[in-house]
TrEMBL record:
PANTHER family associated with the record: GAMMA-GLUTAMYLPUTRESCINE OXIDOREDUCTASE, SARCOSINE DEHYDROGENASE-RELATED
Signal peptide: none
GO MF annotation, one: oxidoreductase activity
Any one of the GO CC terms: cytoplasm
The FAD dependent oxidoreductase domain, residue ranges: 31-381
Name of the protein this chain belongs to: Gamma-glutamylputrescine oxidoreductase
Domain of life: Bacteria
Keywords of this entry: Oxidoreductase
Organism field: Pseudomonas palleroniana
Length: 427
């Protein structure tokens, strides 16, 4: 990834100023070497620095180069799997811990933004939109479930109320979460990187970890240098490749695409999303969208299994946008890009230790903006010796994809085709 620039996204075009960061040369010594400067890595680094650890971050490209600088910017709390499904799989005690943590990531983001004065266009309010009565019944049962775990801020919207928050005729209702919301994701990552540096952490860019020497005193090697550390945190997620073969086996990078319109003007923007909430629908292969500060619509959807870059992103995503908002048929698309997230078979994050001193968190399978911020906190707690919350994630069961690394892509695509068909038929 030497000298890899950001993709040509709306976010890169509207990024806040960022300092030049060095490439690692020679040898450094630190308490914790974090591999990857996305939200997982940056959130871990920040919590560790706040707790007195010395931290060195190695980033293969640039801060926020991966999903953290390309995503839809939607602060969606909870996990990519329903908590009752998790409860059936892990039992009530572990589910209780996971359920209590499910809305913490959004709080952490808000605390970070306030404490370090991060300019990232933070807005409160996220809507889950129901396309049919089955979706609506699901939202009703989710609301009841979350209340059991102490999360009482969710509000159901009937067919009339959802029209007040989104000008789309396709929805029969929805659920509003005011602890959800949206941000400029790259600017959040850049602000967190600046916060890391303000506390004495060091971030090296264009410095891919190419080898980890394991053992009592682990060493991370880059092309031109090495980091000696007491602990390593692996936070490369879908961009990690095969650096840690154990982690590659149980997960699959997937591409997902986003488009951004030209500025719509205040009036049209306000007609589409009068309260400026973000929206995602309840399909398995879901569409999600929101406004930007300069009143563009950012619209995402679709999954490419195996993370191949599709040739014409606009041709894939624009029809989805027009299905929701036919009134945008004459609006120009200014940006279109793709990014990779990491899918696991259970759609739950993979968290754990390799030996005594290598920790990892990856694979939140779609909804990662909040989870990754929580992951940083939970990883830092574990390194401090308080591992109860870390272990609640680490004990989640995980299985390899059927077909292994060679055949997992066609198998997963087949699964997605099946779920896509169910979405279309309204099952
Ligand atoms: C297009 C898109 C839209 C999305 N929309 C949303 C959304 O609206 N809401 C939501 O909740 N989630 C969304 N997600 C998911 C969310 O963005 C991710 O779950 C989250 O950002 C993952 O953060 P991360 O830090 O774990 O990984 P990443 O942000 O991918 O960061 C990993 C970093 O590690 C670096 N790296 C990899 N290997 C090495 C190495 N060997 N050495 C050094 N560095 C390395 C990479 O360059 C990268 O910068 C979306 C994802 C995508 C791709």
């Amino acid at each position: 990834m030497a000298n890899t620039p950001y993709p040509q996204s709306y976010y890169a075009a509207s990024a806040n100023a960022m300092p030049p960061r060095p490439t690692l040369q020679g040898e450094v010594e630190t308490d914790v070497c974090v591999i990857g400067a996305g939200y997982t890595g940056l959130s871990s680094a920040l919590f560790l620095l706040e707790n007195g650890f010395r931290v060195t971050v190695l980033e293969a490209a640039k801060v926020g180069f991966g999903a953290s600088g390309r995503n839809g910017g939607q602060i969606v709390n909870s996990y990519s799997r329903d908590i009752d499904v998790i409860e059936r799989s892990v039992g009530p005690r572990q589910a209780q811990l996971l359920g209590q943590m499910a809305f913490e990531g959004g709080k952490i983001i808000r605390e970070r933004v306030a404490k370090y004065q991060i300019q990232c266009d933070l807005k409160d309010g996220g809507v889950f939109a129901a396309l049919n009565s089955k979706h609506m019944a699901h939202l009703e049962s989710q609301k009841r479930l979350w209340e059991r775990f102490g999360h009482t801020q969710l509000e159901l919207l009937d067919e009339r109320r959802i029209r007040d928050v989104v000008a789309c005729d396709n929805y029969v209702g929805g659920m509003l979460d005011m602890s959800g919301g949206h941000i400029h994701p790259l600017n959040l990552a850049l602000g967190e990187a600046a916060a890391v540096e303000s506390l004495g952490g060091v971030i090296y860019e264009q410095s891919a970890a190419v080898r980890i020497e394991r053992g009592a005193n682990p060493v991370v090697h880059t092309a031109e240098g090495k980091v000696r550390a007491k602990f390593i945190i692996v936070a490369g997620n879908a961009y990690l490749g095969n650096l840690v073969p154990e982690l590659a086996a149980k997960s699959m990078p997937c591409g997902t695409q986003v488009i951004t319109t030209a500025p719509l003007g205040d009036e049209l923007a306000k007609t589409l999303l009068p309260q400026d909430y973000c929206v995602e629908d309840c399909n398995y292969l879901l569409d999600y969208y929101r406004l930007t500060r300069d009143k563009r619509l950012i619209f995402g959807g679709g999954v490419v299994y195996g993370a191949r870059d599709p040739a014409n992103i606009e041709a894939i995503i624009r029809p989805k946008m027009l299905k929701a908002f036919p009134q945008l048929k004459d609006v120009k698309i200014d940006y279109a890009w793709t990014g990779n997230f990491l899918l696991t078979l259970s759609r739950l994050p993979q968290v754990g230790r390799l030996g005594d001193n290598i920790y990892y968190s990856q694979g939140c399978s779609g909804h990662g903006v909040t989870y990754t911020h929580l992951a940083g906190k939970v990883l830092a707690e574990a390194l401090k010796g308080q591992a109860e919350r870390f272990d609640a994630f680490a004990d989640l069961p995980h299985y390899p994809f059927p077909g292994g690394q060679l055949l997992r892509t066609p198998f997963a695509a087949l699964g997605a085709w099946y779920y896509g068909l169910r979405d279309k038929l309204g099952f």
